[in-house]
Design goal:
disordered N terminus; alpha+beta
């Protein structure tokens, strides 16, 4: 029994070391390549008006800095679709200003590249925003 516990502890430690790579934000070039003239769809968890909702978001990032977004289901007290502008700052932060969502105020997110997804985190407070699967 001690042998099994010892082997389990070694395997657990080894897997922790193997899978614990530090995350770093995507730079401007990588973020631009991932978003410009592309449509992304998040998993069924997204942030709207500073609250996580069980809904999938689809957004198109136009080359001209214009953006269109849609939630799969109409959120309470918000339109289902919106449009606005987006830009990538020199540090790779993506800043979006919607006409209606987020009270029309600009907010910024950072993207992290995972092996099979893009993790989206609020740039101001490091809160989870959503996840885009590859």
């Amino acid at each position: 029994m001690k042998k099994i516990l010892f082997l389990s502890a070694i395997l657990l430690s080894a897997s922790s070391v193997c899978f614990s790579a530090p995350l770093s934000t995507m730079n401007k070039s990588a973020t631009s390549a991932a978003l410009t003239d592309k449509t992304i769809t998040t998993i069924s968890a997204a942030t709207l008006n500073r609250k996580i909702i069980s809904d999938s978001f689809t957004g198109y990032f136009g080359k001209d800095g214009k953006m269109k977004g849609t939630f799969a289901n109409k959120p309470a007290d918000s339109p289902q679709t919106d449009q606005g502008t987006w830009k990538i700052n020199s540090d790779g932060k993506v800043c979006v200003t919607w006409e209606h969502w987020n009270d029309g105020k600009q907010y910024c997110v950072v993207f992290y590249k995972l092996n099979n997804a893009l993790l989206i985190v609020n740039a101001a407070n490091n809160d989870f925003e959503s996840l885009v699967l590859n």
